[in-house]
């Protein structure tokens, strides 16, 4: 579990294909590797990856073909910056919102509107995710916890402060570039409860929620 508060801007060092459509990726991040161990979870642009090996300030992780197909990680090239966050602990401050690191879809940046002290960035909104997005609600974009400032049937907008622009990939990406989206997991649980009439399947049976 993560909070969507990016700890550092890391860098993709290399991608080594391991057969089929999977790969081993190496990512440099001095902060997140400072206390990392084999098996730890690290969010990379909003994707929860498992640490396989640590070499100095660089960690490696296996990425399956399914992950490449469902996220924007496949578009990354060596040298590209990535948002990094270690898994939250029970004593962590929840500065953002509850983030699983399970990407729900990929969107594109469709507009950027600079202002004096911030910038409004607009993203395409996949049809299958639109019902989970509400104005003033939370959404994760490339691992960054953000508040929805504007919403239409096809797009949503967020306001980015200077710190977010400087400390995450969202300050560097241009119109047309892909980003990973994770909607608020609470919305999905509420939908499930409402559509099943409060009855959830348990091992092939049904249980009253």
TrEMBL record:
NCBIfam families: PRK09289.1, PRK13020.1, ribE
Reaction catalysis annotation: 2 6,7-dimethyl-8-(1-D-ribityl)lumazine + H(+) = 5-amino-6-(D-ribitylamino)uracil + riboflavin
Record-given protein name: Riboflavin synthase
Pfam families the UniProt entry points to: Lum_binding
Stored PROSITE patterns: LUMAZINE_BIND (PS51177)
Superkingdom of source: Bacteria
InterPro entries noted in UniProt: ATP_synth_asu-like_sf, Lumazine-bd, Lumazine-bd_dom, Riboflavin_synthase-like_b-brl
Organism: Plantactinospora endophytica
Function per UniProt: Catalyzes the dismutation of two molecules of 6,7-dimethyl-8-ribityllumazine, resulting in the formation of riboflavin and 5-amino-6-(D-ribitylamino)uracil.
Lumazine-binding domain mapped to chain residues: 1-97, 98-194
Keywords, ordered alphabetically: Repeat, Riboflavin biosynthesis, Transferase
Lumazine-binding-type repeats, residues: 1-97, 98-194
Transmembrane residue ranges: none
Record pathway: Cofactor biosynthesis; riboflavin biosynthesis; riboflavin from 2-hydroxy-3-oxobutyl phosphate and 5-amino-6-(D-ribitylamino)uracil: step 2/2
The enzyme's E.C. designation: 2.5.1.9
């Amino acid at each position: 579990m993560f909070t969507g508060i990016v700890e550092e801007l890391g860098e993709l060092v290399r991608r080594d294909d391991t057969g089929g459509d999977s790969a081993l990726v190496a990512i440099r991040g001095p902060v997140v590797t400072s206390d990392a161990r084999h098996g730890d979870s690290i969010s990379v642009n909003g994707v929860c990856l498992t640490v396989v090996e640590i070499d100095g300030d660089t960690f490696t992780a296996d990425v399956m073909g399914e992950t490449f197909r469902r996220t924007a990680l496949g578009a990354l090239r060596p040298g590209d910056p990535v948002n990094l966050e270690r898994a939250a602990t029970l004593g962590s401050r929840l500065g953002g919102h509850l983030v699983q690191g399970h990407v729900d879809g990929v969107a594109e940046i469709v507009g950027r509107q600079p202002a004096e002290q911030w910038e409004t960035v607009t993203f395409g909104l996949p049809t299958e995710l639109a019902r989970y997005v509400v104005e003033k609600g939370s959404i994760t974009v490339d691992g960054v916890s953000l508040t929805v400032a504007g919403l239409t049937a096809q797009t949503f907008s967020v306001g980015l402060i200077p710190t977010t622009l400087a400390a995450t990939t969202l300050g560097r990406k241009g119109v047309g570039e892909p980003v990973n989206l994770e909607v608020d997991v609470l919305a999905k649980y509420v939908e499930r409860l409402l559509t099943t009439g409060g009855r959830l399947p348990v091992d092939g049976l049904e249980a009253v929620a």
